[in-house]
Amino acid sequence: MSEKNRLHWITAVIELLKTLKEAIIPLVVVVVANGIGRERTGNFWMDNLTLLIFGAFVIFTSVAGFIKWKRFVYWFEDGEFRIEYGLFVKKKRYIPFERIQSVDYTEGILHRPFGLVKVKIETAGNSSTLEGADADLTAVTREEAERVSEVISEAKRRRRAGVQEPPEIDGKAGGILSAGEPEEETKTLFRMGRKEIFLLATFSGRIGLIFSGIAIFLSQFSDILPYEAIYGELVAFIRFGVFMVVAAVLALMLAGWVLSVAWTYLGFYGFTVSFDGDDLFISRGLLEKKRVTVPLKRIQAVRVSENPFQKLLGYVSVKVHSAGGSVQEGGSAIGLFPLVSKREVNRLLAELFPEIETSAELNRIPERSRPFYYRLDFFWVIPLVAAAGYFLFPYGLLSLLIVPVIILLGLWQHRSAGWAITGRQLTVRWREFTLHTVYVFRKRVQSMQERQTIFQRRRNVATVTASFKSGIMPSKAPIRHIDVADADGLMDWYDPRYRADKHAAVEGTPAPQGE
Amino acid sequence: MRKEPANRISEKGLTVWRIHGIFYTLIVLVPAIAASVLAYIFEGPVWIYIVSGAAVVLAAYLLIFLFPKIRWERWRYEVRETEIELQHGLFIVKRTLVPMVRVQHVDTSQGPILRKYGLSGITVSTAATNHEIPALQMDEADELRSRISVLARVAEDDV
After folding, report:
1. How many independent structural domains does chain A possess?
2. Is A465 found in the same domain as A387?
3. How many other C-beta atoms are found inside a 10 Å radius of the C-beta of residue A246?
4. Which residues form the YdbS-like PH domain (chain B) (predicted)?
């Protein structure tokens, strides 16, 4: 048994800030509800109600943060990582080492002056408990983090050496992983250049976010800003004419855009992917450094996305769907290569996932299903155009222009879509506006569905959807409007019944049990 | 499409769905009555009564008679040694295949109406998706649940 360890005291501050950040919207609501358009009554308590509420909240939160830090201990015992916390309700969480899937690090701005990191220990999360079975060490010294990860990987290694792995692992399926070998070297696989990060930042859809940020910021301070003064200036301002207003709006948009670019740039600065045979490590960030660990065997599917604009410049992006249970880490798919040269991508994927076949010839969607790709859209387009045409006559008729756009997009979707089966791998390609290609193995597909509407039956086509696990949510790969015979073929490919004979042939080599 | 799964759900399930249909019809009935009352008070035009009446009758026919019937006819399931196959859907025929190896757990559940008719639903969960067989005889459901859980345990992953 090792001794019980405390976190660094900065934890209390971080907890306080975190709670404040989460509570900012309700607080703003309280402030707005209480503070605006109210006469001063002379009653001290009533006049400063919002400030009092705010103050009480801050005091309460800081005490809570302090207690949380004070009561939180962690230690190693009996091959388990154990934490204990809570004041009134004492909680203990024991996590066996072999259940630990990954250890992630984050270095926030508050961490860095003290040389601290946040350690997040993730387990094979159970989808029924959103909270997961994770353990966060909010702030520990870098050496301590090093030690934690050392103890855990040491224990994992010992277990691996002890328990004999199924023989075929070092043969074919996971060629990189040989059982007896002590430690694989960590190898850097991919690093994003400045140009790519800048491009990514330029394309990122965060502009809207920044705008709403500015709006919230302004509304928050609306009762502090001297409105009368501003109003007077505004009148003068308007005299400058519309040109100035337009210029100001453009300047504001430009500022928003620059901010968003800078934000993304900082977030993705030094984006590096490395792997050591078992795990992928993705690290990024300048002000806040993050390192995420993705165990290779937890990866369910790989998705290559080609945004038409990015593709013009020769770039695509790659995400992996992992079974890891973390909810807050940007949802289900983890960005593996946020922006990567199209020429490079297959080589990189081949290096990381040698078993994935990326160059398979795709089956196209039959010609007769073409109308299905835009026909459904008319359900909302026709009422829309009719309404616009009626109420906004004659300019509303311009909305008719949306019809050819919809049809063209549908045709494009029909032409780009495709699917292929290569052995145990399913490849699905479909276009929303961005073209997605998903590579998933049969053992990762959780269920498959074939569906057919009355209209589809007339044309003898059907849609097949493969569901796989992605974080705590299911993710789907749709193969739309293919020939019924092909759809049935896909279902048969998935159906364990029709594999009975093949099963006998490979019985000698049991499969690795992953999730 | 592939061959249909063999088993139907309990015939009493149809009755339960019809009862559900009555509840849904009530949701339409309330605004219809409200509209009629308002029309009566404010001496509104006659077509308001006609439209509300027609809406209620149509909703009742669809929700209590037609839809439950189609749905019940459509619902099929089959639990085989290596997989579960389901077929359902009102306008869209959906055929779902869940291999036994992917099954994580099986639940049976029962609301007050199902209980009254001695029925029970089964939910099969994989790591990513949930699939429900809505109305089975209670003993049948219990038996099926234990059968699936046994099969899921012995099923071998052949990748």
Report:
1. 4
2. no
3. 10
4. 72-148
If one counts every other C-beta atom within 10 angstroms of the C-beta of residue A78, the result is 9
The residue to which tokens 């009148």 are assigned = A235
Determine, for residues B82 and A454 on separate chains, whether the beta-carbon distance falls below 8 Å.
Answer: no
Cβ-based interface (< 8 Å): residues of B facing A: 1-2, 80, 82-83, 89, 91-102, 126-129, 131, 155-159
Distance from CA of A336 to the nearest CA of B (A): 22
Residue A436 is encoded by which pair of tokens?
Answer: 């997605």
Helix (H, G, I), strand (E, B) or coil at A301: strand
Claim to verify: residue A432 and residue A359 sit in the same structural domain: yes
Structural domain that includes position A77: 5-163
In a domain, A45, yes or no: yes
Could you tell me if A348 and A328 are in contact, meaning their C-beta atoms sit under 8 angstroms apart? no
Q: Which of A212, A235, A268 is the last residue of a domain?
A: A268
Together in a domain, A119 and A18: yes
User: Quick check: A279 and A293 in contact, CB under 8 A?
Assistant: yes
Distances in whole angstroms, Cα of residue A514 to Cα of each of A101, A143, A261, A298: 12, 32, 39, 7
d(CA B71, CA B67): 6
Strand partners, A421: A426
The three-state secondary structure class of A102 is strand
| Interaxial angle between packed helices A24-35 and A207-220, expressed in degrees from 0 to 180 and rounded to the nearest 10 | 40
Map A282-332 to HEC letters. EEECCCCEEEEEEEHHHEEEEEEEECHHHHHCCEEEEEEEECCCCCCCCCC
Secondary structure string (H, E, C) spanning A180-221:
CCCCCCCEEEEECCHHHHHHHHHHCCCHHHHHHHHHHHHHHC
The residue assigned the tokens 């769905």 is B17
Q: What is the value of pTM for the model shown?
A: 0.76
Question: Is the ipTM value over 0.90, yes or no?
Answer: no
Give the residue from A141, A163, A185 where a domain finishes. A163
Is A281 among the domain residues? no
Contact yes or no for B97 and A506 at CB 8 A: no
Give the H or E element holding residue A80: strand A80-85
Q: How many residues comprise chain B?
A: 159
Same domain, A31 and A113: yes
Name which of A446, A465, A488 to mutate to probe chain B: the one with the most chain B Cβ atoms within 10 A of its Cβ: A446
Residue type, A191: R
